[in-house]
Amino acid sequence: MSVSDRVVPNPAADLGLADLSAAIADGRVSSVATVTDALDRIEASQPTLNAFRVVRREAALREAADADARLAAGARLPLLGVPIAVKDDTDIAGEITAFGCGGEFAPKTEDAESVRRLRAAGAVIVGKANTCELGQLPFTSGDAFGHSRNPWDRTRTPGGSSGGSAAAVAAGLVPAALGSDGAGSVRIPASWNNLVGIKPQRGRISTWPHAEAFYGLTVNGPLARTVRDAALLLDVAAGPHGGDLHTPAPIDASAAVGRDPGKLRIALSLRIPFTATKTALDPEIAAAVHALAKTLRALGHTVTVADLHYGLMIGASFLPRSMAGIHRVHRAMPEAIVDPRTIANSRVGRVLGGPVLAAARRLEPLLHKQIGSFFDDYDLVLAPTTATPAPRAEEIDGIGVGATNNLITAACPYTWPWNVLGWPSVNVPAGFTDAGLPVGAQLMGTANTEPMLISLAAQLEEELHWERARPTPWW
Q1: Is the pLDDT of residue 380 over 90?
Q2: How far is Cα 140 from Cα 157, in angstroms, rounded to an integer?
Q3: What letter would DSSP give residue 205?
Q4: Which residues form a coiled coil (predicted)?
Q5: Three-state secondary-structure class, residue 155
Q6: How far is CA 432 from CA 169, 299, 326, 441, in A?
Q7: Is 292 helix (H, G, I), strand (E, B) or coil?
Q8: Would you call 104 exposed, middle or buried from its count of C-beta atoms within 10 A (0-12, 13-18, 19+)?
Q9: What is the CA radius of gyration of the chain?
């Protein structure tokens, strides 16, 4: 299904992040009116779309009024007065951080560093978007809040674990949102919602108050309809805190948008990294990725079918870090009420901590060398983001640990290696299945290559115009 078949007018939500910021700065619309509209749409959609865990109506409207006063006094900031959402793993002073869990939680007393930077840029944070328990799944559901739904198909999951953020952007509730990605949790929901999702270099956006998240696997990243908006949000949120363990040199993501990426050597790899369960690439997704490759060739790039061989060592580095990370977060939330599968994973993480975790982390430099050698011949890799379109939202319900692992691995076996490596990867929309479900592809680079990936993604967007496709509102 082509993008032109999915163009649905939605005037209330047509402006993206950059254009909405300009409209507010120029006085064409006030921050109060814009934020009120976003809050009204969020609250109207909650019974059906269910994208948010926390909605900050009173606080956001106060902040919008303050933004209008600052604008009237001549202040200009990148996002002054613009409504933004963050994920419910990110601290906002005065709000709880439930991280998808049930239970009673004390409000946080300080903003996360990423939130501090969003506020410094003038953004008005209208709420905290839903995520699954401790970010473990490519589904966004849980006993504490139910199921978040995919704007493109109410029966489907929006993905996860940044599914609430993705659903909010795809539905036009907010122009962009911040998510986090520990095994694909920005890229997967981006692919299933026709969005651009950037997993940046580790440390690009601070995870403070955590010096690193999930032992270096998890990074924060933007979700937006366009590359320009995703790059803007990345630039605004990026930057270190003094306590961060990882502090890459700064980049200018926005400057890469519209810049000629040059003629790139691209490896097209459909190979699935090793998994212990059965996986297979859906033929419609394979065809969509091949179609992107054809577009890239037409743009002058060299695209060669060349499978990236990940090896077994990368899985040996991922599993202990992931499970030990779950245990660490679960232990830090004694008031949380969680699913038995979360408890089981936390117990595994307790066993895999200590010496096993230390050994897993020592593998990373070897993996950089091994997989990095592939890039002697290529500038980047083009690969599927997921192996299947979005599953039904309820497929995750009422099944055990083994069945859960089989389900999530079959759907999403592609993204996690880049979390081990800490390198950037960008999901770009790759079209729609015959059933009208969005699918995506990854542009994957080595360390600190976000500008190249963003430049190429913007070139593809200019050719394909995926931003014109919008879901038909049902929420």
Answers
A1: yes
A2: 7
A3: B
A4: none
A5: coil
A6: 18, 22, 34, 12
A7: helix
A8: exposed
A9: 20
Structure tokens that stand for 204 in this block: 């690009």
Dump the DSSP string for 313-370: HHHHHHHHHHHHHHHHHHHT-TT-B--HHHHHHHHHHHHHSTHHHHHHHHTHHHHHHH
Active centre residues (catalytic): 87, 161, 185
Q: Are 198 and 225 in contact (CB under 8 A)?
A: no
Tell me whether the omega of the peptide bond preceding residue 185 falls within 30 degrees of 0, making it cis. no
Indicate if the alpha-carbon torsion angle 131, 137, 138, 144 is positive or negative: negative
Other CB atoms closer than 10 Å to residue 4's CB: what's the count?
9
Q: From CA 356, how far away is CA 98, in angstroms rounded?
A: 29
- The strand pair at 176-181 and 219-224 is best described as antiparallel
Instruction: Name 347's Cβ contacts closer than 8 Å, sequence gap at least 6.
Output: 327
Smallest CA-to-CA distance from 311 within 381, 364, 259, 367 is with: 367
Q: Is the pLDDT of residue 112 over 90?
A: yes
Residues 282 and 270: beta-carbon distance below 8 Å: no
According to the model, what pLDDT value does residue 13 have? 56
**Max alpha carbon distance in the chain (Å)?**
61
Residue with tokens 């050597």: 265
The full length of the chain comes to 475
Give the predicted TM-score (pTM) of the model: 0.97
Write out the E strands in 99-226. Answer: 124-129, 141-142, 146-147, 176-181, 196-199, 219-224
For residue 79, the one-letter residue type is L
* Beta carbons within 8 Å of 143's beta carbon, 6+ residues apart: 102, 337, 339
C-alpha span between 234 and 230 (Å, rounded)? 6
Backbone angles phi, psi at 390, to 5 degrees: -60, 125
Q: Rounded mean pLDDT of 301-317?
A: 96
